[in-house]
C-alpha cells in the first residue's frame, strides 16, 4: 500500500542514478596497461632445518629458563610461561636425555642394512612437573656442588625448592620442599660454587634487592634459610655472578651500579670491605668514569677472581679489580720468586689487593651487552651484544680486541655466550641468539684488523638449527652444554627444547 504522505518528489529521489548515454560510451584508457596474471608463479618454498637428535615439546609457550644438573648432565629442567589457568601461570618440567642415542658416525651406506630406517629426532617426556607459580618461571638452578636441590624462580617473586632423590636403579625423583616470597619479581638465580657452603643460591629482584638462601632439608621448620639480604641497588637488579671460589657475589643494576658482596665475611676478616661493611666494590654512575647511560645488564668474574667485567647499554664494558684474599694468604705462607710475581702482575691481573680500580673501559659493540663469559683456561673474555655481534678480548693485553665477529647472529640479539670448559683447551665458545641458531666458534688466533664478518675467517666451527627465528616469534633464549660441550640443550622462544650433538 502506498503511503498517503508520499508524493512524486519522493519517487524521483528513490530512482537509481543513471549514466548519461554519451558518458556510457566513453572509454577510459589505462596508461599503465593491464597487468596480466602470471599463471607460472609458484608458492614460495620454505626449507625447514632440524639438526637436533631429540626434542621436548610439552611446553605450551615460550621456554624462558633452563638448568642442567651438575653431576648428572642428562637431567634437564626447563621453565616457561604456560599453565593450566586462564592467567597462564608459570610451569616447568624435568626430563632425562640419557636414553637419546647419538648420530651414527658412518653414513647409511656403511650399515649392514643400508635400507634400514634412519634415526630421527627422539621425543622426550617429562619425569616431573614444576608447578605452584602464579606467573612465568624465568630462572632455574640446581644447587652446587652435588645438585641435591632444584630451585625455580618466577615473575611472581616466588622461589620454590625441590629435593632430588636417586633410587637404586638410578631413577631420579623430586618432591617439593619449601618456598619463599620476599620480592615482587625475581630476575635471576645463581648457585654458589663454594664447597664450604653447599646448597646455597643467590637471586636478584626487580626492586633492586639481592638475597642469598641456604637450603637445609634436615631443618623441617625452616628448610629455606636467609643467609644475607642487601638493598643498595636503586634500580632493578639485572644480573649476578659468583666468583669461582664462591667468596664474592657481584651484582649489577639498570641504575648503573655494581656491588661485589662479601657474603661470608672473608674480606671483612682482613679489613678489606668498604665503609658499609658489606661490599669490597661499590661503584655507581655518580663516578663519571663508571657511568653507563642506560644501565648495566651483565656481569662475570674471571677464573682467578682478580677482576669483574660488567656490560651495559650502548656496548659499554667496564673491568674492575677485586681484592686478592686467597693469594695474599698464600703469599704470606710461601715466598714467591720474582718470575712468579711478574706473571701474576701481567695485564688485567695487576689489580693486587686494591679493589674497585677501573682497569679498563672498552666499547667495541654498538648496542647493549647482554652476556659475558671468561674462558676457563685462556686469557679471553667474550661479550655478546644486542647488535648481533660477539667481541673477544685479550685480558692479558690490556683487554685489547682479539676479534670482533660483527654478524655472529646476523642483526639479531646475542642472548648467551659461554666457553666450553672441558674441550678445546678454552678456545671453543658457544653462542645462541634471537635468530634461532646455536653456533660454536673456535676463537684462537687473531686477525690483522680485528673486525671480521660472518665468514670462515670468523672461526665458526659448527652451527645447529631447528628453532624458529628471524623475527618469526622464535629465537633461542638459553642453553646448557655440560662440562664437555658434547651435547647442547636449548630453550626456545617457540616453546620447544632441542638436543643437539656436537
Name some characteristics of this structure.
502 residues; mainly beta; Methylamine Dehydrogenase, Chain H; 6% helix; disordered N terminus
Describe this structure in words.
By secondary structure, the protein is mainly beta. It has a single domain (47-104, 118-501), classed as Methylamine Dehydrogenase, Chain H. Helices cover 6% and strands 39% of the residues. The chain has 5 helices and 35 strands. It has helices spanning 8-14, 21-25, 266-269, 325-333, 338-344; strands at residues 54-56, 63-68, 75-80, 91-96, 122-123, 126-130, 137-142, 149-154, 158-166, 172-181, 186-191, 200-205, 210-215, 224-230, 237-242, 248-253, 258-262, 279-283, 296-301, 307-312, 317-321, 358-362, 369-374, 380-385, 390-394, 400-405, 408-411, 414-419, 428-433, 438-442, 451-452, 460-464, 476-480, 487-492, 497-501. It has a 5-stranded mixed sheet with strand order 5-1-35-34-33, with no helix packed on it. Strands 23-24-25-26-31 form a 5-stranded mixed sheet, with no helix packed on it. A 4-stranded antiparallel sheet has the order 2-3-4-6, with no helix packed on it. Strand 33 (476-480) and strand 34 (487-492) form a beta hairpin. It starts with 7 loop residues before the first helix and ends with a strand. Mean pLDDT is 85; it is low at 1-9, 105-112, 328-352 and 446-452. This is WD40-repeat-containing domain protein. Residues 330-340 have a biased composition (Low complexity).
